[in-house]
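Summary of Year 1 activities. Much of the first year was spent building the evaluation harness for sequence design. The harness presents a backbone, in tokenized form, and records the residue chosen at every position. We chose the following record to illustrate the format because it has been used consistently in internal testing since the harness was completed.
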């Protein structure tokens, strides 16, 4: 983390978990443990149908509510889809774009990711752009090329001013939900590379203001170590964000003096 130049953001990604009632219960549990979120912003990205319940439940907890996806068109005949304006109107501040599960199961491509990033920014939200390599790609030695390509395509046509509003999450696919965490060296290496990529595109001042998260089996036991890396400015947390106690411990790890 580098709190001087950029925001630290601890974000939960609930995926397809938690009902509205469970959302309320989670907020109560969190309130009882009282996280020390002095230095970081806390976000919980919830299924779209629970956004209203979440904004109410988290209101006095200083937790921002995020969404897990959007569709890039403004409105129209796109049955089942949700637009950026609809999310914004519900009080959504962050939206995850291009999570590897969406790339893998729902046909998300670098092209659609870029369109969604533009839609989120235009609506005044902060996209959390996910990039990351598969195990096969890591073993082939093409991690950096792939990450550079994903970052460049996601940001294509985005102005320097708007890039500052983006969060980039490095999520190695082989570490998501597998219990296998990247070592802090592996995570730091790629996060630093992402910042270098942003620097080549937008210059040093913009690059140092962008929040870059790590995601992939982050948990209380490894959060402090990962977050101590200068280019890792927070986490995107799946499994451990479903338990209030674990999530709060990760928040506390990001808020040590
Ligand atoms: P995980 O998921 O923490 O369960 O590995 C992270 C993510 O997919 O964002």
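For this record, the design step produced the sequence shown next.
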């Amino acid at each position: 983390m580098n709190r001087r130049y950029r925001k630290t953001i601890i974000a939960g990604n609930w995926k397809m978990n938690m009902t509205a009632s469970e959302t309320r219960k989670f907020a109560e549990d969190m309130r009882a443990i009282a996280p020390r979120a002095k230095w970081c912003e806390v976000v919980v990205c919830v299924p779209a149908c629970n956004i209203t319940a979440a904004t109410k439940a988290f209101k006095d907890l200083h937790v921002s509510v995020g969404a897990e996806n959007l569709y890039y068109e403004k409105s129209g005949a796109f049955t089942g889809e949700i637009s950026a304006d609809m999310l914004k109107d519900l009080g959504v501040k962050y939206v995850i774009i291009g999570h590897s599960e969406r790339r893998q199961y729902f046909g998300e491509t670098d092209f659609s990711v870029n369109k969604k990033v533009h839609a989120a920014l235009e609506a005044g939200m902060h996209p959390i752009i996910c990039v990351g390599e598969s195990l096969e790609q890591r073993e082939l030695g093409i991690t950096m090329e792939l990450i550079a390509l994903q970052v460049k395509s996601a940001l294509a046509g985005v102005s320097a001013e708007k890039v500052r509003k983006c969060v980039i999450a490095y999520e190695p696919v082989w570490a998501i939900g597998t219990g296998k965490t990247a070592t802090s060296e592996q995570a730091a290496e790629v996060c630093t590379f992402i910042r270098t990529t942003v620097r080549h595109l937008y210059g040093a001042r913009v690059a140092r203001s962008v929040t870059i998260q790590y995601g992939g089996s982050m948990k209380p036991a490894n959060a402090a170590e990962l977050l101590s890396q200068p280019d890792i400015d927070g986490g995107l947390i799946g499994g451990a964000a479903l338990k209030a106690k674990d999530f709060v411990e990760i928040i506390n790890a990001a808020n040590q003096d």
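The longest strand covers residues 8-13. Quantitative recovery figures across the full test set are reported in Table 2.
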